[in-house]
Design a protein that fits this description.
Blueprint: H1 9-31, H2 38-45, H3 49-52, H4 59-83, H5 88-104, H6 108-114, H7 121-134, H8 136-144, H9 150-169, H10 174-189
Helix pairs in contact: 1-2, 1-4, 4-5, 4-6, 4-7, 5-8, 5-9, 5-10, 8-9, 9-10
Organism: Nocardia iowensis
Protein name: TetR/AcrR family transcriptional regulator
Pfam families: TetR_N (PF00440)
Amino acid sequence: MPRIDAPTVAEHRANQERALLDAARMVLLQNGPQAVSPAMVGAAAGLARSSVYKYFRSGDEILSRIVADALTEWGERVRDTVERAETPAGQVEAYVRTTLALAASGAHRIAVLGSTLPRGEAARRDLVDAHHDLAAPLRTALTGLGNPNPDLTADLIDGALSRAIERIDAGRCHDEIAPETVAFVRRAVGISHRQSRHRGKG
């Protein structure tokens, strides 16, 4: 019987699953999505492949889980920052700044890399829904600004953010890209300097 390194079996399983997911993220970042398999993840976590199957049925399931976790964490951090801004204008700016800061930290690479393999229609649909949910705080802020089409405008802003993130990934300095992107978005949605004086706390 395997050794239980926790007060309860449930805690042991949770610890093992967390170790596997941490190992999977490392494999993904170092070797790409094709390397995320039960054998590779088990080896990285110091567990036999048969042990991995007690938690995940396949490499695709592991990928889906770590991408979902990355998007959830990303969404929580963006939402928390946006909600602390005092005005709709400040919320839009907080969304842009936080998204770029997270990208500069490398946090987005897990979601990007893990999303590059085709993993079935349901998985792709879940990913599209998750990305749509990430922009919910931005759409709310745009509605508060009186934007006539917050869905389309949010999509266009996210397109601009994607290009900005590509520049950061290519080696451009975040401190150079972020102010320019904020200024671009401010002009695009008609945020005046007076409106953006109070960008929120933190």
